[in-house]
């Protein structure tokens, strides 16, 4: 019930190539759980923004009244990676020793925001639900930590997919929960939910 909402949310998007990308933003209104109405859209050309600085943008909504005020910073991606199991980062003993030194007690106040890393190896899923008429699924796996999100590739026509991917996240809040969700890719339609597990970082 507000015409001037303040969300104050931060989202991190990770780019691993030099392709041209547009940030697409949609604003929706909810009447209840079932009814939603699109209030407007806007687009930001990420490649046109100056890097290594925070850009304050006021974006008018297309074909609708109102505007969005956003802070967007484009910076080199640090601490986040996706790799194959055979070239696992942090697997080198020398690198692990350097990280242990970086996060030892005597260095713990050097950078308060630098809490550490979480490395997740997504190996496989077993006995997934069949989402297609063929009795198979096209599963992929999404990992979310705070507002960070990374995902595997899709393994087509398989109920026992093997991804064998390694994901490395920088930890921003030790109280965050790692959420791992498996979806079925469904062409142009929204993906179907196949299952989910939530792991509090404090339990690791």
From TrEMBL:
Biological process terms in GO annotation: regulation of neurotransmitter secretion
InterPro entries found in the cross-reference section: C2_dom (IPR000008), C2_domain_sf (IPR035892)
Keyword terms: Calcium, Membrane, Metal-binding, Repeat, Transmembrane, Transmembrane helix
Cell compartments where the protein resides: Membrane
Keyword check for Membrane: yes
Gene Ontology MF annotations: calcium ion binding
Any Pfam family the entry gives: C2
This protein's GO CC annotations: synaptic vesicle membrane
Domain of life, per lineage: Eukaryota
Record domain C2: where: 1-59, 93-204
Topology in membrane: Multi-pass membrane protein
Family that this chain belongs to: Belongs to the MCTP family.
Protein name as annotated: MCTP2 protein
Organism: Rhabdornis inornatus
């Amino acid at each position: 019930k507000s015409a001037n909402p303040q969300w104050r949310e931060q989202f991190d998007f990770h780019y691993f190539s030099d392709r041209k990308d547009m940030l697409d933003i949609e604003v929706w209104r909810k009447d209840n759980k079932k009814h939603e109405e699109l209030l407007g859209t806007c687009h930001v050309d990420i490649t046109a923004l100056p890097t290594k600085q925070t850009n304050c943008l006021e974006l008018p909504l297309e074909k609708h009244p109102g505007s969005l005020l956003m802070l967007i910073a484009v910076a080199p991606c640090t601490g986040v990676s996706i790799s194959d199991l055979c070239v696992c980062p942090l697997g080198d003993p020398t690198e692990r020793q350097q990280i242990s030194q970086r996060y030892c007690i005597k260095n713990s106040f050097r950078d308060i925001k630098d809490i550490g890393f979480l490395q997740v190896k997504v190996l496989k899923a077993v006995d997934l639900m069949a989402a297609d008429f063929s009795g198979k699924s096209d599963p992929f796996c999404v990992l979310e930590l705070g507002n960070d999100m990374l995902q595997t590739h899709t393994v087509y026509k398989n109920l026992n997919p093997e991804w064998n991917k390694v994901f490395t996240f920088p930890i921003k809040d030790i109280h965050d929960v790692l959420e791992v969700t498996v979806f079925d890719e469904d062409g142009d339609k929204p993906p179907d939910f196949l299952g989910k597990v939530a792991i509090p970082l404090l339990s690791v």
